[in-house]
Amino acid sequence: MTTRQLVLPARRPSRTPRGKRALRRNLIGWSFLAPAIALIGVFTITPFGQAILLSFQSWDGVSPDTPWVGFDNYAFVASDPIFWASMRNVVFFGVVGFIVGNGVALGMALAVNSVTRGKTFFRTVFYLPGVLSVVVVGLLFSFILAPGSGVLNRLLGLVGLDGQNWLGDPAVALPVVAAVFVWFHWGFGFLLFLAGLQDVPKELYEAAELDGANRWERFRYITWPQLAPVTSIVSLLTLLAALQIFGTVQVLTNGGPGNHTMVPTLAIYNEAFVNWRYGSAAAMSVIFGGALVLLSVLQLAITRRRSRV
Amino acid sequence: MSGKTSIHKLGLYGLLGVAALIALFPLLWMLSGSLQSLTELLANDSFLPADPQWHNYVTAWVQGDLGVYLRNSVLYTGSAVVGILLVSSLAGYALARLDFAGKGVFTFIILAVMIIPAPAMFLAQYKLLISLNLTNNPVGYVLILITSGIPMSTLIMRSFFVGQPAALEEAATLDGAGPLRVFWSVILPLARPGLAAVAVIQGLGAWNEYLMALVLFDDNSLMPVQRGLTAFSSAETPQQQILLAATTISIVPVVIFYLMAQRHIVKGIGAGAIK
Which residues cross the membrane (chain B) (predicted)? Predict the structure, then answer.
């Protein structure tokens, strides 16, 4: 019988009689991991390092020469108003996605969970927008929100309200694009919340009802704490999806009017593939990607500490 | 008491009905608009097509080259899903059932890689694929799709393998089967629910991928459908109703797939995200 080994690889004695069996076991284990390691190594870790390297170089996207320019790209990005406008806008998307998106998702999950009929129907319908592609959503809403022939203005007209140039007016374009994001994405959080609600033990509610707890108290003291792990993972995933928004915006407004709906991923894309400045695009992606990584690590640390208490 | 409950219920169904309408209305309008004539659509005074223009779909299919794009998407998505299932079930099995040194290191790498967002990498991935001569090339695109699906899928598969009984594995080993044989003939068939969940989630993701497709393909005959749709809408400026017919055609496969496979979605994202 083999005993379970908890020794670190470096300290493992490799040539002892038992070492041979351990070596074989390690070889088998790592050969199962080999395809994953090869792909992640080549297509994720290498480009990740390359991105950082590229941010200190100048590259036109074609030539093999990438001269070293130090912090020039970062200085350029630091004074680029479009990039910083995009960062401000994406914080807005993040906040709206986080508060409105998660609020709608949780509210609808609670509602669907408490009805007896039509559960499957509502679950199917609410997640349906989420399977569409960013391109379809962008094209579809660019028609729906169009000032002249758009169906939204017509619907508003039917109830006696004035139409708007939803995507062309700098004052409303950003909230409107955020609303499209919420329409597209809240189904994901809804599904996870609903699954979480179905895992809450029924006995808890029965006991609380015997104790005379009202609807709000049952939510506050049973549902909410039981949903905590789902809430934190849904929050993180919604936030990351909102912050990385790209295709919807590119197709819907292409960042306009002006740069009022510009987002970082689109700014990076434009800097590289429209302005042909790959070096400063790489600097942008390092700054923005670094911020996202920090956010994820922070969120995971908070979640872990909370679940330990 | 019962009066109050039924009012509450009525309100609840009212709320759900409104939400369902908001979720469905844009799609229903897309369907309706795709069957109208341009004059009718621009006049914007009917919600239903007065005289359904079915030929809009033929025009969209032909003008938009949708046959080519859909075939490409099926091909790319299919290969990506098969690749992801193979690679991540191998890795997930090792993490769940095999005992070897350095397992923790790999788990850490997977978690770290999951945190790296696409905007931090897509430029450098593009540069890498240029140097490998893999732009405008299905192989490069599919490899990127597979790689980005591995971390989450590995964790999902791991959580399915952890719950499997060890008895069968031991019996097969005593019968003289090697580790790969045990994995392929004993473990994998039992993991079917996990494989289905991974296939559904990664299939939807690969089908709808856009950023890398945008960066990698400028040859129309190789584009997947999302990329093809933007090429169609921007380069040839088709009429609105034709574009609506094209978007409707493009979502048919994914909506049918979703309706058939939806129960696996909940299981999969639940297992991947929370456990």
Answer: 12-31, 74-96, 105-126, 138-161, 182-207, 242-261
Residue B47 and residue B31 in contact, taking contact as beta carbons nearer than 8 Å: no
Q: pLDDT, tens digit, for every residue of B90-128?
A: 999 999 988 899 899 999 999 889 888 889 899 999 999
Do the Cβ atoms of A44 and B259 come within 8 Å?
no
Q: Which of B93, B147, B251 sits opposite A136 (nearest CB)?
A: B251
Cβ-based contacts of A154 with chain B (< 8 Å): 44-45
Q: What is the pTM of this model?
A: 0.90
In chain B, which residues fall in CATH 1.10.3720.10? 61-273
Q: Are B57 and B238 in contact (CB under 8 A)?
A: no
CATH no., domain B61-273? 1.10.3720.10
Look at residue B109 in the predicted model and tell me its pLDDT: 92
Residue B3 is predicted with a pLDDT of 61
Predicted complex ipTM: 0.91
CATH of A89-261, one of 3.40.1190.20, 1.10.3720.10, 3.40.1000.10, 2.60.120.560: 1.10.3720.10
Which residues of chain A lie closer than 8 angstroms to B225, CB-CB?
Answer: 133
The predicted pLDDT at position A20 comes to 83
Give ∠ CA B115-B118-B119 in degrees, rounded to 5: 115
From the list B152, B167, B248, the residue with the least C-alpha distance to B200 is B152
What is the tens place of the pLDDT at every residue in B217-237?
Answer: 999 999 999 999 999 988 767
Residue in chain B lying closest to A35 (CA)? B87
Residue range A196-218: average pLDDT?
88
- Tell me if A48 and B215 make a contact (CB, 8 A cut-off): no
Dihedral sign of CA atoms A157, A163, A167, A171 in order:
negative
Whether residues B98 and A131 touch (CB distance < 8 A) is answered with: no
* DSSP-assigned beta bridge partners for residue A68: A57
